[in-house]
């Protein structure tokens, strides 16, 4: 991919903060790697990133393998002591450490500005809006995004969460709304931003409603690289059993019980098997629920697998079930579509922008009972219509092309150039 494109515009020098970048991981680190490598086709990047989970070694390995990429990407590592477990246990302390990390990042950024003539700065990730970093304080054109995190979990689904988790999410929703409206540094960053990108239409609408700030929607994550897909996709095993997969961190907002309750209603009507990937604090509770629903013979708990093995299981599925109640743009949905697996999900958050009638089924997010019923009926309907599954599978492969990393890089390139013009002419940013 690198070096293969003809592009007649000049290459820009970009100073970027990407707190999470890892070529071998999914979620935030994976999307960080996807963005920087896609943008390197068009520009030269100086990337300040968090050092964690062996990403320095993995990044250096990939740069050594690809000299062209090595000439276009310059990494500066700053250790990140915070972690996702800390955000779950005590969010205020997590954000304190994360803010301190950004203060170190801006110190390095100022040193780099004194050495390199940059055209633009870009705060890439983490994608949550609560911590915009400090690149916006530099006297350079500034781009922020894709930004997410402004969409709340619907609290009417309390029964599926459990009492303790419900009160956790109630507090989180309340704090989220207050931070979105009153966070002083977020407000300052929005005023200074020359181009603002949101990761889904719900977040776009939230910023427009609360701050009157317009944005361009570009999904923050993208498909699996073609060379990786080719190693995974094999002919599906012919079986009379409907294969369903689910993957993710076992936390309450991922809402696996919606799928379990739905399958319990149809277990006497259709032969199926559910592959559950991942692990987490809700694992034991969910396993007990599966036993109570007498589903233990209908599913396999795989735990955490390496990326290739996990994707191989999804690739063998007929359907990918994604009932999550709170997301940005979920990487795993992009992965399923990349593998030609139709998706059943809620018409909510980033997945609602990605999945359409050509590649899956979206369930209206009305109330818990209607969602469980709709999941059950959708699975039952597809189990009896193999040709429709095949059509949705073909549609998934077509749909994912629209979210390619190259298409995202081209959109971002246009925003970079627009932001530079705005800064040079002292115009009020419009994107």
Tell me about this structure:
The protein has 431 residues and is an alpha/beta fold. It folds into two domains: 198 residues, Rossmann fold (3-Layer(aba) Sandwich), CATH 3.40.50.2000; 176 residues, Rossmann fold. Helices cover 48% and strands 16% of the residues. The protein has 18 helices and 13 strands. The strands form two sheets. Strands 3-2-1-4-5-6-7 form a seven-stranded parallel sheet, with helices on both faces. Strands 10-9-8-11-12-13 form a six-stranded parallel sheet, with helices on both faces. Strand 9, helix 12 and strand 10 form a beta-alpha-beta unit. Helix 1 packs across helix 18 and helix 14 crosses helix 17. The radius of gyration is 22 Å and the shape is globular.
For CATH, the homologous superfamily of the largest domain is named as: Glycogen Phosphorylase B
Overall mean pLDDT: 92
Number of helices: 18
Largest sheet: 7 strands, parallel
- Low-pLDDT runs: 3-7
Structural class: alpha/beta
Provide a brief overview of the structure.
By secondary structure, the protein is α/β, with parallel strands linked by helices.
Key terms:
Rossmann fold, single chain, 16% strand, 18 helices, seven-stranded parallel β-sheet, alpha/beta, 431 residues, globular, 2 domains, six-stranded parallel β-sheet, 13 strands, 48% helix
Mind sketching the topology for me?
Layout: E1 13-18, H1 27-39, E2 44-51, H2 55-65, H3 67-72, E3 73-79, H4 84-89, H5 91-115, E4 120-125, E5 142-147, H6 158-161, H7 163-182, H8 184-192, E6 195-198, H9 201-211, E7 216-217, H10 226-232, E8 242-247, H11 256-266, E9 272-277, H12 283-292, E10 299-303, H13 307-315, E11 319-322, H14 331-338, E12 343-346, H15 349-354, E13 360-363, H16 368-383, H17 386-401, H18 405-425
Parallel strand pairs: 1-2, 1-4, 2-3, 4-5, 5-6, 6-7, 8-9, 8-11, 9-10, 11-12, 12-13
């Amino acid at each position: 991919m690198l070096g293969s494109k003809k592009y007649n515009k000049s290459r820009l020098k970009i100073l970027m903060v990407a707190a999470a970048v890892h070529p071998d991981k999914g979620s935030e680190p994976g999307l960080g790697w996807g963005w920087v490598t896609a943008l390197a086709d068009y520009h030269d990047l100086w990337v300040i990133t968090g050092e964690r989970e062996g990403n320095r070694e993995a990044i250096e390995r990939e740069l050594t393998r690809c000299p062209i990429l090595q000439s276009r990407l310059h990494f500066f590592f700053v250790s990140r002591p915070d972690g996702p477990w800390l955000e779950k246990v005590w969010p205020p302390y997590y954000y304190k450490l994360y803010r301190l990390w950004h203060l170190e990042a801006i110190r390095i950024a100022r040193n780099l500005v004194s050495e390199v003539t940059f055209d633009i700065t870009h705060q890439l990730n983490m994608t949550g809006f609560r911590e915009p970093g400090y690149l916006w304080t530099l006297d350079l054109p500034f781009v922020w995004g894709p930004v997410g995190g402004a969409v709340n979990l619907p609290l009417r689904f309390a029964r599926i969460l459990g009492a303790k988790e419900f009160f956790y999410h109630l507090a989180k929703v309340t704090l989220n709304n207050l931070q979105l409206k009153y966070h002083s540094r977020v407000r300052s960053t929005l005023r200074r931003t020359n181009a603002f990108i949101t990761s889904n239409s719900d977040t776009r609408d939230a910023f427009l409603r609360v701050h009157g700030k317009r944005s361009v929607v570009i999904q923050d994550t993208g498909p699996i690289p073609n060379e990786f897909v080719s190693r995974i996709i094999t002919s599906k095993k012919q079986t009379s059993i409907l294969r369903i997969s689910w993957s993710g961190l076992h936390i309450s907002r991922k809402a696996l019980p919606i799928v379990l309750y739905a399958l319990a209603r149809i277990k006497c009507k259709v032969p199926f098997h559910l592959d559950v990937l991942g692990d987490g604090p809700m694992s034991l509770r969910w396993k007990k629920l599966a036993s109570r629903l007498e589903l233990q013979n209908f599913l396999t708990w795989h735990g955490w697998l390496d990326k290739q093995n996990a994707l191989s299981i999804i690739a063998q599925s007929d359907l990918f079930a994604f009932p999550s109640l709170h997301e940005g743009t979920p990487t795993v949905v992009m992965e399923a579509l990349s593998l030609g697996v139709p998706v059943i999900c809620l018409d909510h958050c980033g997945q609602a922008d990605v999945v359409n009638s050509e590649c899956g089924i979206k369930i209206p997010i009305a109330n818990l009972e209607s969602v469980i019923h709709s999941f059950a009926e959708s699975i039952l309907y597809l189990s009896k219509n193999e040709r429709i599954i095949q059509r949705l599978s073909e549609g998934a492969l077509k749909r994912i092309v629209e979210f390619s990393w190259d298409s995202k890089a081209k959109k971002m390139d246009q925003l970079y150039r627009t932001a530079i013009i705005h800064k040079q002419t002292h115009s009020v940013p419009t994107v």
